[in-house]
Amino acid sequence: MSDTLTLAARLPVSSATTVTAADGIGVRALVRDGLGLATVLARKGAAEMLGRRVRERYALELPAGPRRSDSPQAAFAGTGPGAWLAISQSGGNEFAARLAGDLEGVASVSDQSDGYVVIRLSGARVRDALAKLIPLDLHPRAFRSGDVATTVASHISVTL
Q1: Is CB count within 10 Å lower at the N or C end of the chain?
Q2: What is the pTM of this model?
């Protein structure tokens, strides 16, 4: 008799898909699945050409700092000098393969679709909840909508 083990893919937080507080007060957490995610690193001396390619193929300007720029095709979040997290609302692993082809010669692309968990947070108390977890000033004057930060939340790497 064969002892065959079958593995099934699942999100590490799939049992906690949504958390809400009564009367809409608090924080709502929604796990996003099926997104295409990839890290993009500009090749030496190719930043200008990379910006042109992204503009032509994805109809957006690459953010020059820790900001998010998006179009219907994709979003790019600046995570460091010459580094971005690229996001597609669909496509999963195929997004990174397509992105690598589009940016061939000007950027290195690494698929992160199965490596990250994406959680959308909303609600009146999101900033208060995050302030308990991360060492950043989240006041709206310091961290505006569209800003990006790579930091830690209770010793776990996160990108906001």
Answers
A1: N
A2: 0.83
